[in-house]
Amino acid sequence: MSTPTPLDADAVLWSADPGDRDGRPLLVLLHGYGADERDLFGLVPYLPSELAVAAVRAPLAPPFPAPGYSWYPIEGLETRDPAHITAAARGLIAWTDAAAAAHRTIGLLGFSQGSAVALQAMRLEPARFAFAVNLSGYVTPGDLPRDSELAELRPPVFWGRGTNDDVIPDFLVAHTTEWLPGHVELSGRVYPGLSHSVSEQELADVRVFLDKQLAQDDGGPGSA
């Protein structure tokens, strides 16, 4: 079993000061491979103002000369080790234990690697996270002990991806397509011509999804 690497509590960007965010729903942003906490923080103006937003930094440095940080090692497109992804998800959960106790609900939004970690964390702790947004990411193959619990709770998940995304292997897209509908309340969209990136239309769809989650927020799954 891989050991989780702790997240750096000082490498987190918050959308509000502590006194302005306590008690508000929390959305945690998880960037992709080779980026850092600043990457997705630029999405804050597109997100509902009711949310407190935290952009966290992944704990690992990719091999030189790749820039930024990573959630888990990638030796090649076909060699993503599930144990590493699970360890990264446990590190995220540990961070929420320390940092998110003041928030009544927690949602996750990840891009690429960050999405894989977000979905894995939801599988490890199904009642902790109210919803997830999966942008150009995937579900890690293999069974986890609480997958059946997740299938009973069926938290909302938005999945967006582009038709021209050549980064995520086809077998992972196929696995995610098959796995998600049986375990979550799935919504989302495939964007024609979009590569491994995020578009204005996708951000608009994410905003609709998040507004819906806020409207339905009643202190259910993900409550602190």
UniProtKB/TrEMBL annotation:
Coiled coil: none annotated. Transmembrane segments: none annotated. Residues 22-212 form the Phospholipase/carboxylesterase/thioesterase domain. It comes from the Bacteria. Keywords: Hydrolase. The keyword DNA damage does not apply. The keyword Nucleus does not apply. It holds the Pfam family Abhydrolase_2. InterPro entries: AB_hydrolase_fold, LYPA1-2/EST-like, PLipase/COase/thioEstase. Belongs to the AB hydrolase superfamily. AB hydrolase 2 family. This is Esterase.
